[in-house]
Write a structure and sequence with these properties.
Order of helices and strands: HEHEEEEEEEEEEEEEEEEEEEEEEEEE
Mean pLDDT: 90
Low-confidence stretches: 1-22, 29-38
Strand content: 25-35%
Number of helices: 2
Shape: globular
Largest sheet: 17 strands, parallel
Number of strands: 26
């Protein structure tokens, strides 16, 4: 009987401590999950100064929303280096970024991360390009104005891929040192990556071309866009849409665009022997004519 009582007591203790241990483990797991959930909650931040903007950008996580209020004067290039995810992009929106105080040769904003939404802002007065998508991909640029920059307003460059630029406006960009030879409204050139798209954008009164695809090895899609009055610089080429360069064979797609009153051609293949698909695109008032070297 004593042995039986000992056995019953021992088993009871085992059950008690087992339950206590299981409860402790369950509590620890729940606490950890709760902490992870809290840490992954997207932040919404409004910034009014350069230091606050840089802090928000450098610590941004997927889903975060950074809102620029008013005008922020940048003293050096703002780099968007972090990355969101396909289901939860990082968002930066609103305001004006004035880049007039940056060192000579600086871009206004460069994007080396992926999965950003860049929307509803103005980038102006950069010593070089206003906005450059340099690396990474899957970025969405919407309703961004790039004006009075010292090179192209918005440029996709150096392997940047799968970017969608929609309803953006680029004007009055002029590279003084070169007499306007390089400052395009929009450029996707010099070895940008695949699947870059421009839709519903306007390039007006830029010193070189409206669009420039010089040295671009992969197909670019341009649709429902307008290029007008480009080439006002002394050395500017002044094409509405420059669609490649000599030695290339790249089949760009140009659909439902308009080229008007540009200094040179409306649409120039520029030596690109690729089968450029031009559908529903037209224009008028271009000094040299509407189409040239389109194969």
């Amino acid at each position: 009987m004593k042995n039986q009582l000992k056995c019953i007591l021992f088993c009871g203790l085992l059950v008690f401590f087992s339950c206590d241990t299981d409860d402790t483990i369950a509590t620890d797991v729940a606490t950890k999950q709760q902490k992870e959930t809290v840490s992954n909650v997207a932040k919404s931040t409004t910034v009014t100064s350069e230091s606050a903007l840089r802090s928000a950008v450098s610590t941004a996580n997927p889903g975060d929303i950074i809102t620029i209020s008013g005008t922020i004067n940048l003293t050096r290039t703002l780099e968007l280096a972090r990355s969101g995810t396909s289901s939860s992009k990082i968002n930066i929106t609103g305001g004006v970024l004035n880049c007039a105080n940056q060192p000579s040769g600086s871009w206004g904003v460069k994007v080396n991360g992926s999965y950003w939404n860049i929307t509803n802002m103005t980038i102006r007065n950069a010593p070089d390009c206003g906005l450059v998508l340099q690396n990474g991909g899957y970025n969405y640029v919407y309703n961004v104005t790039t004006s009075y920059n010292g090179d192209s307003g918005l440029q996709v460059y150096n392997g940047a891929h799968d970017n969608y630029i929609r309803q953006c406006y680029s004007n009055e960009n002029y590279d003084v040192a070169n007499g306007g030879e390089n400052a395009d409204g929009f450029a996707c050139k010099l070895s940008a990556g695949k699947n870059n798209v421009f839709e519903g954008c306007i390039a007006n009164h830029n010193s070189d071309d409206g669009w420039d695809l010089y040295g671009q090895p992969y197909t670019v899609t341009i649709r429902n866009c307008t290029a007008s009055n480009n080439g006002y610089g002394t050395n500017g080429d002044g094409n509405g849409f420059k669609l490649g360069s000599a030695g290339q064979s790249v089949p760009h797609t140009v659909t439902n665009n308009t080229a008007t009153n540009n200094k040179a051609w409306g649409y120039d293949g520029n030596g690109n022997t690729g089968h450029i698909t031009i559908t529903g695109s037209s224009g008028s008032g271009n000094v040299k004519g509407l189409f040239t070297r389109i194969y």
